[in-house]
Write a structure and sequence with these properties.
Helix content: 10-25%
Structural class: mainly beta
CATH class of the largest domain: Mainly Beta
Number of strands: 19
CATH superfamily of the largest domain: Immunoglobulins
Order of helices and strands: HEHEEEEEEEEEEEEEEEEEE
CATH topology of the largest domain: Immunoglobulin-like
Largest sheet: 5 strands, antiparallel
Length: about 260
């Protein structure tokens, strides 16, 4: 009888241990989120096309270097986990390579989207949706991945697969239409986002623990002295943030001044 009881207790302990291990795994991830607000006046300057004027001139083209909403919402701020050179970060199993490539489109004589992130597990498809208009895609400032500068025609998109992480967002340009540019951040993990039109951002399923996060905007580059909660980012625009297991870290409103963007 004692032996039977002992076996039952052992089985119960093993089951409890497995359950606890499963629960622990599910809780070993967290989320960070926040909202960028621009504290200043920002007026988008109108762009007067100098090429393909009849077509491009029909569209309301503006300088997208600083995109601010009606209530100061700041779009296109890059936020990404920076594990450090040569270091890898655990990736939550919910993150899987996309079945379809991510798209960067030449449309209405501008790039859509203007700012984007790309995980190396995914492919990038560069399209030309401007019928009868020629575009080229110049990615000549890539460092870790091969540079390219290629024509993209209607119905014949360019498809690229990158193998390495870029330290910072890379500028993409169209030399035919010199006002056209976009920024793409290529990373070897999915923990990178761009703030939306309403200024908000969220990175889900980050490994629990302390991580360095980078804050970057095309107008200035690294956003140093950015006040996030009670701390400030360093000269590289980085800040250590602790992500508790199973919790969401709400960084609240993060104010960005004109001086931070070189304005």
């Amino acid at each position: 009888m004692n032996c039977i009881i002992a076996k039952r207790l052992l089985s119960a302990c093993v089951a409890a241990s497995l359950l606890a291990g499963s629960t622990s795994f599910a809780a070993d991830w967290g989320t960070i989120k926040g909202k960028f607000v621009f504290k200043g006046d920002a007026k988008a300057e109108k762009i007067v096309p100098s090429k393909d004027v009849d077509y491009c001139g029909k569209h309301d083209l503006v300088d997208e270097a600083v995109v601010v909403g009606a209530d100061g919402e700041l779009a296109n701020v890059f936020v990404f986990l920076n594990a450090g050179r040569g270091k890898k970060v655990d990736i939550h199993p919910d993150y899987k390579a996309s079945a379809e490539p991510k798209v960067l489109d030449n449309h209405f004589c501008r790039f859509e989207p203007h700012a984007m992130t790309l995980w190396t597990a995914d492919k990038l498809e560069i399209r030309n949706s401007d019928d009868g208009i020629g575009h080229n895609t110049n990615a000549g400032v890539l460092f870790a991945n091969p540079k390219f500068n290629e024509q993209v025609t209607n119905g014949s998109p360019i498809v690229k697969k990158f193998e390495k992480s870029e330290a910072l967002p890379s500028k993409i340009a169209c030399n035919i239409h010199p006002w056209m540019n976009a920024y793409v951040l290529i990373r070897d993990n999915p923990y990178a986002v761009v703030s939306a039109a309403d200024g908000t951002f969220e990175i889900k399923n980050v490994p629990a623990g302390k991580h360095n996060f980078s804050f970057w905007h095309e107008a200035k580059g690294n956003l140093k002295d950015l006040k996030v909660g009670k701390e400030k980012s360093d000269r590289k625009g980085q800040l250590e943030i602790e992500v508790p297991a199973g919790e969401t870290v709400d960084l609240g409103e993060i104010e960005v001044t004109p001086a931070m963007l070189g304005k």
